[in-house]
């Protein structure tokens, strides 16, 4: 049986240990690199500079073009490779305009479904029933495939239903939150729809716990997310210093109230 090992390196698929007919493969996924030689995200209040390659730009373009159909201001005339991360975030902001919290989340759901072939959620449920193996496997996939969206992350050990397993992912400093500076965008356009998509469409529970103090985030595959009203993120105030849409006088981000 063929096995694969994922790592964040230039994209390639080569036989393990140099054996031409080996069934074990190392799959290297090209991930966005931080421009600073330290490889560490910028401090709170500053934006990390990334060096994006074709892998990242392809995902930015695919998602941005799908989302732009729902954005205010109409569709741009950008070519496929003309999109970058800032323009991707700008489309997210334009999607929020004129929509309430639930409507924003529904747009993300429709975009995610449109990226998949017909019947994909049902096939995912068959391939990845909510078992420890499936939860750990999806955590390992998250690190390379979500890298373009959230930046550096690592698989960590977490406790799910009283059992320790490596189905957690710690995002060092979320690129999406860092670039948008918007609590409402983080919760309505990423956290809630991603949780709901995995939990309800794929049948694999997922909880995301953003830390608004340092912009890190924890993902726990196998953990059922709480109702919105009981989620600490639902009571988070705006980033008054970072967000252009912030209302500093409000104790809770106004984008989370509507």
TrEMBL record:
- Stretch forming the signal peptide: none
Note one Pfam family from the annotation.
D27-like_C
What the entry lists under InterPro entries is as follows: D27-like (IPR038938), D27-like_C (IPR025114)
Q: Which GO terms describe its molecular function?
A: iron ion binding; isomerase activity
Q: Which residues form the Beta-carotene isomerase D27-like C-terminal domain?
A: 148-230
Keyword list, A-Z? Isomerase
Q: Determine if Ubl conjugation is one of this entry's keywords.
A: no
The molecule here is called Beta-carotene isomerase D27
**Source organism of this protein record:** Rhynchospora pubera
């Amino acid at each position: 049986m063929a096995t694969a090992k994922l790592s964040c390196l230039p994209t390639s698929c080569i036989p393990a240990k140099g054996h031409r007919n080996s069934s074990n493969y190392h799959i290297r996924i090209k991930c966005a690199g931080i421009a600073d030689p330290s490889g560490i995200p910028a401090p709170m209040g500053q934006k990390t500079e990334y060096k994006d390659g074709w892998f990242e730009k392809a995902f930015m373009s695919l998602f941005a073009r799908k989302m732009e159909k729902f954005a205010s201001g109409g569709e741009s005339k950008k070519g496929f490779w003309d999109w970058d991360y800032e323009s991707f975030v700008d489309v997210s902001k334009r999607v929020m305009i004129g929509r309430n919290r639930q409507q924003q989340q529904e747009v993300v759901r429709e975009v995610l479904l449109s990226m998949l072939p017909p019947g994909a959620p049902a096939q995912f449920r068959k391939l990845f029933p909510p078992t420890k193996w499936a939860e750990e496997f999806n955590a390992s996939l998250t690190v390379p495939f979500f890298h373009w969206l959230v930046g550096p992350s690592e698989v960590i050990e977490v406790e799910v239903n009283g059992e320790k397993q490596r189905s957690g992912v710690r995002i060092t400093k979320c690129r999406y939150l860092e670039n948008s500076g918007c609590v409402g965008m983080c919760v309505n356009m990423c956290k809630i729809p991603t949780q709901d998509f995995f939990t309800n469409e794929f049948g694999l529970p997922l909880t995301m716990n953003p830390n608004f103090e340092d912009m890190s985030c924890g993902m726990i595959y196998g953990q059922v997310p709480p109702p919105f009203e009981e989620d600490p993120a639902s009571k988070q105030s705006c980033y008054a210093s970072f967000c252009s849409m912030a209302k500093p006088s409000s104790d809770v981000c106004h984008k989370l109230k509507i």
